[in-house]
Amino acid sequence: MAKSGKKRDHQLAEGQGGQTASKGRPAVWVRILISIAVLWHVFVVFISPLAVQPASILVAGIATSPYVRWYTDSLYLNQGYHFFGPDPPRNHLVRYSVTDQQGAVVAEGSFPDKAAQRPRLFYHRHMMLADQAGNGPPDIPADDWLRFSLRAYARQLLRTYDGERAAIECVVHNPLTPRMSLQGVDPNTPETFETVMVVEESAAALAEPLPIPAPPAPETTAESLPAGNDL
Amino acid sequence: MKSAFTAIRGYFAELAGAWDDFWFNPVDPAVLCAIRVVTGMLLFWTHLVWSFDLMAFFGPEGWIPPEMRERLDGPRMALGFFDLTQAPWAVWTFHVLSLIAFFLLTIGLFSRTAAVWSFLAALSYVLHVTPGAFFGLDKINCFLAMYVMLGPCGARYSVDRLLRVRRGRVDADPDYVDESWSANLALRLLQLHVCIIYLFGGLGKLLGRAWWTGESTWLSVANPEYRSLDMTWMADWLRLAELIAHATVFFELFYCCLIWNRWARPWVLLMAVNVHAFIGLAMGMPEFALAMLAMNAAFLPTGLVRGVLDPVSKRTGGMLASKPKPKEPKEKTKE
């Protein structure tokens, strides 16, 4: 086994309350500055997930104040870490059909699709596209943002396949119950899919920018974290 | 009164000493360097995959069009490369340079510079796809890159070290690598961050119903989109599924306490391996599982990491850094 590269250069000094020798360590003033930075960093790393809704107005107010967000936003620390919480997700799928001027189908498919998107991580990115379609800024209603995202996806498909019309259907895929699984029901049986929204987009609209959904009435309560980061 | 004052002063002196030891005690950078290798690999692979349809995700039009970005970036106080330009040539140039940086980070060539570039690049990518196409892997990738760049991440298991040995600047004996306080600082930050991640992972689950009832394991394995390994046989073993759900929540909630106890630590790390092996193999997220295990690796003892990696490093280094053999006299060949 490897031996120690250098002698341990700190020892508790007797009668000095555990003060340590500073060999191999930065100067005291550097340590003080770094300690302040560390306290700040750990504080914001902790308060960011604490501010995910439901949260107190105090914590949400601190986490979303510009004094904190200049740091958390720019270092991507504004995270919730609620992986598979509060409950495991039911996934969304985006089904699409692109037609040309004669009405003939030029592209048809869905994402995520394990067969079409490989490797697995690339498939996962498409799964996130479908799942996060309704995940917009906190001041925009989720349905409005979902419609906006689906229109954006439709426009991307129109450009990719040079189509005239694109029809998009966002569906949610419900998992089977244990009983259904034991009965041998196909997990992709049509009954497991629920339509959430259908959107159509035409090539003529591509010339205009996509209209951004407007927020409803201004809210008086504290904002939540930037949307999407509580996953 | 005087003794009370002495006791209080003694307490604060001990606290300052313990704080100083915790953050600034120089340590062997082996663990940080091992984490650097995994981080580099993860970053390289994660971003290489974007190449399959780079412009659709990062181009001027695409899945996340400028109108959407404009609205999303409004409340955000961050700036990434793709906020500056999305011209195809610029996007591809940035992408290739970033892949080179991730590769250099993996092999440990210009390690510190590559680490800083890797972190900034990873941030640029993820800021552009949040929300849109991000997930937990991106978060952990960024954290790993951020902490790795704080310490001497190329001190071991790197081409940098091989070059220094070859130039006679450092001893070839792996036992004589300088201990570093910044390696300790980076590892401590990683350790605290992973504790916070698990704590809020557990607390977030308690907000739902399925983790209390134990249905969450079934809902996860029965999810056709995530599934990469058919675990639906659990329909016949629902008590086992419930036990797994409870164990997961217990693990996440108490990780931040148990991991600091040296007797409990190996078992907690073993549990982490189990949890993330399940996520990696059954839920189709091997990269995320590996990233979380890399964060957990901050708690591994230096001796264990060196015991595993030093022989590999020695063999690889021996092959790469061996001096060129003296030229043998050329054989006469028939003209």
Characteristics:
heterodimer; A: 231 residues; alpha+beta; 2 domains; 4-stranded antiparallel β-sheet; 4 strands; disordered N terminus; B: 335 residues; mainly alpha; 16 helices; 67% helix; 0% strand; globular; disordered C terminus; transmembrane helix (chain A); transmembrane (chain A); membrane (chain A)
Reconstruct the topology from this structure.
The complex is a heterodimer of chains A (231) and B (335).
Chain A (H helix, E strand, L loop, with lengths): L27 H23 L6 H7 L2 H7 L18 E9 L5 E7 L8 H12 L10 H20 L3 E9 L4 H5 L10 E10 L29
Antiparallel strand pairs in A: 1-2, 1-3, 3-4
Helix pairs in contact in A: 1-2
Chain B lengths: L1 H23 L5 H21 L3 H5 L7 H8 L7 H4 L3 H20 L3 H18 L7 H13 L10 H8 L14 H26 L3 H4 L2 H6 L16 H21 L6 H18 L3 H11 L5 H20 L14
Helix pairs in contact in B: 2-6, 2-7, 2-8, 2-15, 6-7, 7-8, 8-10, 8-15, 10-13, 13-14, 14-15
Give a verbal description of the structure.
The complex is a heterodimer of chains A (231) and B (335). By secondary structure, chain A is α+β, with helices and mostly antiparallel strands. Chain A is 32% helix and 15% strand. Chain B is built from 16 helices and no strands. In chain B, 47% of the residues are buried. At the A-B interface, helix 1, helix 3, helix 4, helix 5 and helix 6 of A face helix 1, helix 2, helix 4, helix 7 and helix 8 of B. Chain A: Keywords: Membrane, Transmembrane, Transmembrane helix. Chain B: This is HTTM-like domain-containing protein. Chain B: It is found in: Endomembrane system. Chain B: It is a multi-pass membrane protein.
What strand order characterises the main sheet of chain A?
A: 2-1-3-4
The assembly state of the depicted protein chains is: heterodimer
Radius of gyration of chain A: 26 Å
Q: How many structural domains does the protein architecture of chain A include?
A: 2
Q: Kindly, what is the distance between the CA atoms of the first and last residues of chain A, rounded to a whole number of angstroms?
A: 43 Å
Report the end-to-end length of chain B measured between terminal Cα atoms: 103 Å
**Unreliable stretches covering 5 or more consecutive residues of chain A:** 1-20, 226-231
What is the number of strand segments of chain B?
A: 0
Biased composition (Low complexity) (chain A): 219-231
Region (Disordered) (chain A): 1-22, 208-231
Transmembrane segments (chain A): 28-52
Keywords (chain A): Membrane, Transmembrane, Transmembrane helix
